[in-house]
Write a structure and sequence with these properties.
The structure is a single chain. It is built from two helices and no strands. Helix content is 96%, strand content 0%. It is an all-alpha fold.
């Protein structure tokens, strides 16, 4: 069932008459719009306030990040200084170890010289031992000869005394 153009106009005029007879409906729409505008204004103000708070928070976060960045840079500088100091100390320790190695080489040379001297001393002691053995042998022979001579002379003396 389609409405004719004239029917639509007639319905519109009836609706307008009813609205005109009841002004509270007309005023209700105006009040509703005013309330909506006030609410929208308050929401916009709250959103603006929220935006300001967020911007302030972001500024503080940026400041905090800058502080953290500075601390990291300071820490990096400290670590670099510590690393340089450690490298310097390691170099000193390496130099000391090199000096100690040189000293050990000198000590090794001295020990070799001492070993050579001990070998020479051993040779000398061996020579002295041979001389003592020779002297002992000679003294033993001398004692045997002396004893033999003493016994022989004693026998000759006794024999001479008996004969006389």
């Amino acid at each position: 069932m389609a409405l004719a153009e004239q029917d639509i106009r007639e319905i519109e005029s009836l609706i307008n008459q009813v609205i005109d007879q009841r002004p509270e409906v007309k005023n209700a729409n105006v009040r509703y719009e005013i309330d909506l505008r006030e609410r929208a204004t308050r929401v916009e103000e709250e959103l603006k306030h929220q935006r300001d708070l967020m911007l302030e928070g972001f500024k503080r976060m940026d400041e905090r990040f800058e502080q953290v960045k500075k601390r990291f840079e300071e820490s990096d500088k400290r670590f670099e200084l510590m690393q340089q100091e450690m490298n310097r100390r390691f170099e000193q320790v390496d130099k000391r170890f090199e000096q100690v190695d040189k000293r050990f080489e000198q000590v090794d040379k001295r020990f070799e010289q001492v070993d050579k001297r001990f070998e020479q001393m051993e040779k000398r002691f061996e020579q002295v031992d041979r001389r003592f053995e020779q002297l002992t042998t000679r003294i033993d022979r001398f004692m045997v000869w002396s004893f033999g001579t003493t016994v022989s002379v004693g026998g000759v003396v006794i024999a001479a005394i008996k004969l006389l």
